[in-house]
Amino acid sequence: xxxxxxxxxxxxxxxxFGKSTKSKVVERLxxxxxxxxxYFVLLCAATIFVDIVYKGGKxxxxxxxxxxxxxxxxxxxxTLHVFEHQGRKYEMSDSKFRSFREGIDEPIVTxxxxxxxxxxxxxxxxxxxxxxxxxIIAMTLGVLSAIFLSEYSRPGKILNAVRLSIxxxxxxxxxxxxxxxxxxxxxxxxxxxxxxAGWFTLAFMVLPIIISASEESMRxxxxxMRDASFALGATQWTTIxxxxxxxxxxxxxxxxxxxxARVAGETAPIMFTAAxxxxxxxxxxxLERWYDLFFQGVMALPYHIYVVSAKIPQNEYxxxxxxxxxxxxxxxxxxxxxxxxxxxxxxxxxxxx
Amino acid sequence: xxxxxLRLQKEIKMDTPAVDSQRVDRNRPLIRIxxxxxxxxxxxxxxxxxxxxxxxxxxxxxxxxxxxxxTLLRCLNRMNDLIESARINRGKVEVNGVDIYxxxxxxxxxxxxxxMVFQKxxxxxxxxxxxxxYGLRIQGIKKKSQLDETVERCLKGAALWEEVKDRLxxxxxxxxxGQQQRLCIARAMAVGPExxxxxxxxxxxxxxxxxxxxxxxxxxxxxxxxxxxxHNMQQAARVSDQTAFFYMGNLIxxxxxxxIFMSPDKEQTEAYISGRFG
Lengths: 353, 278
Ligand SMILES: Nc1ncnc2c1ncn2[C@@H]1O[C@H](COP(=O)(O)OP(=O)(O)OP(=O)(O)O)[C@@H](O)[C@H]1O
Ligand SMILES: [Mg+2]
Hints:
The complex is a heterodimer of chains A (about 350) and B (about 280).
Chain A: H1 3-17, H2 22-60, H3 70-74, E1 77-85, E2 88-93, H4 94-102, E3 110-118, H5 121-152, H6 157-170, H7 174-188, H8 195-219, H9 223-231, H10 236-265, H11 268-271, H12 301-311, H13 316-350
Antiparallel strand pairs in A: 1-2, 1-3
Helix pairs in contact in A: 2-13, 5-8, 5-10, 6-8, 7-8, 8-10, 9-10, 10-13, 12-13
Chain B: H1 2-12, H2 19-24, E1 31-40, E2 43-53, E3 58-62, H3 69-76, E4 86-95, E5 98-99, H4 107-113, E6 114-117, H5 128-137, H6 144-157, H7 161-164, H8 177-190, E7 195-199, H9 207-220, E8 225-229, H10 233-239, E9 242-247, E10 250-256, H11 257-262, H12 267-273
Parallel strand pairs in B: 3-8, 3-9, 6-7, 7-8
Antiparallel strand pairs in B: 1-2, 1-4, 4-5, 9-10
The complex binds adenosine-5'-triphosphate (ATP) and magnesium ion.
């Protein structure tokens, strides 16, 4: 080996082995920062979930058969009676307490706690109804406008203005939609506090998300796919129906997942338009005409949480209700999101491009 | 030829008294482009094109990139209708004596008669079977026997049948590039066109796949009139009967392919073909 080669090798090692430690330290620090912030976010999320699942689980689950708190899931919210009778301590919802008292002669002294007995079935039903109706309206309007924006409209100032306003609409706080819904649907249209007013208010709230996401996923479809269809003698609508919408569906569904979570979760838009703090009848009970269904207020999970945690005196019994409701609420949203995700995966498999 | 023209006239629902004269005029071209000016917005892309495309011949469009080959090709089946800024300033395109830009002409019917194969193969993300019959499906044809027959006939016609007959229900996208392009040809054939427009159909293919497509073009010539855009001089020389050379939106020269490649009239053509520019 010649001496010159040795020199080359040494300088090579010098540069490759990089004695400069400063940049390495910075690199490590920055990396550690990223890692820490990610872990921090994870920790926050985990804390919230664990807290709700742990505390809510105590309300929702039971240690003996059927392992679920059936009353909580199938009954209406009631006043809770806490009393002592013959040396035993009882906690009973109002209806149970009444029948219990029937068979007993001596007077019972009870402490009562509003909203802390019974269950949340009307809230579950109300939320499901609200989500279903609002999503049907939002998806229909949203997908139709997205089709127009992505396939039919001509590029230009007006289109840009429309896009910009849709984008801005997405940033409007939900309480503003609530006020708007009250002014428009509840008062001006005279629908009162009703499912249908809530549907439209919620639908308008998620419309921007659905329109932009649907438009995006339609525009992502290669022009070649449309060209091929046109070249085979398809009209524009046929092309959209057979070669744009089906392939855009996974993207549209993704947007709907976000939409569902928002529709189900927001309290502000429904508190003036659709939600009752307490209603004895279930939505489908006592209807005179079928369309009366639309024109009645309902109970809803997020509003119920708000009511039991902010509108009534707090104690250990209301806290059980809050956590139980929050748990059920999380579970329902997760279930809806999960089914949309599964549907999306199935569609992706079918139309892969 | 008269049969084809009758069919075209029936499909496009035109009442022309010219049918008889067509029957007489045996030398009349299938497609005639006259004094054709075309622009995208303010930018003119084609200048005063005059051209005859003969039936059952392969016509090649050659020329440097951006000279307007694809533009003219897309004018032949009105695919340019879909481009917002596209304008025809002057002239006309006649297919069998019918001005295809006449306002009574239904562009979707026209496109069934004049099929198109694109540069980038673009099968639908559906099964091979569904790809081929797409054009029939959208016409509402449901008869299984007819669909089956079409699939077999067109895949055979596109020299793809032997390779895919056992997996017709797999996705068209699972095929190789060359197979995909042949699937697109089969798909175009299924709607029963008289003309096939091909825009650089082999530019994304390897030599073997290219050879297959070229062989196919030779055979298709018997049933179809073919217009092909290509950047490959050898390909133009191999597959075409007549060749048109474009430069900056102008048709510089059009002639029998042998003529163009052996002794072109124009200096520019000679320079392009010999690879001195473009
Ligand atoms: N959709 C369009 N809008 C505006 N201008 C266009 C459009 N398509 C093509 N052009 C322009 O028209 C001219 C001709 O384009 P064309 O695609 O026909 O060329 P080409 O000969 O097919 O080129 P290549 O060989 O690269 O495919 C080019 O200058 C191009 O920039
Ligand atoms: Mg081109």
